[in-house]
Amino acid sequence: MQNLEARIDTGFRIVENVIPHDECEGIIERLANLENKHTRAGARHLMSIPLISQLANDERLLAIACQELGTKVFPFRATLFAKSGKANWLVVWHQDTALPLRFRHCETGWTSWSKKENVWYAHAPAWALSRVVALRLHLDASTKENGSLRVVPSSHTLGLLEDEEIKPLVNARGFVECHLGKGGVLAMRPLLIHASSKAQTDAPRRVLHIEYVDSLQLVPNIELAVV
Predict the structure, then answer these.
(1) Per DSSP, what are the bridge partners of residue 81?
(2) Whole-prediction pTM value?
(3) 3-state DSSP assignment of residue 34
(4) Would strands 119-123 and 98-101 be described as parallel, antiparallel, or unpaired?
(5) Nearest-CA neighbor of 139 among 42, 203, 64, 207?
(6) Could you tell me which of 45, 58, 47, 51 has the C-alpha nearest to residue 30?
(7) What is the mean pLDDT of residues 30-37?
(8) For the ranges 19-28, 29-38, 194-203, the one whose mean pLDDT is highest
(9) By the 8 A CB rule, do 196 and 207 touch?
(10) SS3 119
(11) Would you tell me how many other CB atoms lie within 10 Å of the CB of residue 141?
(12) 41 compared with 51, residue with greater pLDDT
């Protein structure tokens, strides 16, 4: 196992000191005052909240996402992960393959349809996921003790994987622990194999996970929902 800053071609990149500490504290305070949008462990579908929408469209974050995708980008999904000693969980090795969609369609390659909070979701084909990048804004420092993200470098180039294929790849390739300071951003591709352990401390690890795409309309019949 290594602990290092990744190059762009590995499917993830660490950018430190994107958002100042005092600004992170202001975001945390405002998120804590939201009602009916979050639980102890976090919240999803946050793009309708002006604070989150404004942050997702902040030039500092847009510049990172644009660099990753090489073109203009649009934020479409925001999720808060709030891990601590009181809200603690293990995330097994996986890829992020589900996308929110405005309408259900019949195009091939989209599977496991479901509805979450009245939004259609489906597991997307690799061509659609290749047009997405996620930025994980760390509102707290991410350390070895509080369940930092672990990633398998360059695994996003392997395409969609079956569950039983993932663990052997982790064992063969090894992984990197992504430690970031408060206000740092981790950019990552959806197909990058990743996981996280349980926190070993009561100190919180709050992360805003914001996803960007090169166009909300992927093809004429398929359009992402903004959630």
Answers:
(1) 42, 207
(2) 0.92
(3) coil
(4) antiparallel
(5) 207
(6) 51
(7) 67
(8) 19-28
(9) no
(10) strand
(11) 17
(12) 51
Look up tokens 């166009």; give the residue. Answer: 215
Query: In the prediction, which pLDDT does 85 show?
Result: 59
Spatial separation of the C-alpha atoms in residues 7 and 219, rounded to whole Å: 30
Category of 138 on φ-ψ map: left (φ > 0), alpha (ψ -120 to 50) or beta: beta
Read off the tokens for 17.
Answer: 């000191």
Asked if CATH classification 1.10.10.10 holds for the domain at 8-223, the reply, yes or no, is no
Phi and psi for 28 in degrees, rounded to 5?
-60, -45
pLDDT digits (tens, 9 = 90+) for 110-157: 999 999 999 999 999 999 999 999 999 999 999 988 888 999 999 999
Report pLDDT for 4: 42
Q: Stretch 81-108: mean pLDDT, rounded?
A: 87
Alpha-carbon distance 210 to 227, whole Å?
10
190 burial type by CB count under 10 A (0-12 exposed, 13-18 middle, 19+ buried): buried
Going by pLDDT thresholds of 50, 70 and 90, the confidence category of residue 87 is low
Please state, in angstroms and rounded to a whole number, the distance separating the CA atoms of residues 147 and 14.
17
**Tokens representing residue 194 in the block:** 């990743």
CB burial class (10 A; 0-12, 13-18, 19+) of residue 54? exposed
Residue ranges per structural domain of the chain: 8-223
Question: How far apart, in whole angstroms, are the C-alpha atoms of residue 102 and residue 98?
Answer: 13
For residue 227, CA distances in Å to 81, 90, 100, 107, 117 come to 15, 25, 8, 22, 10
pLDDT score recorded for residue 36: 43
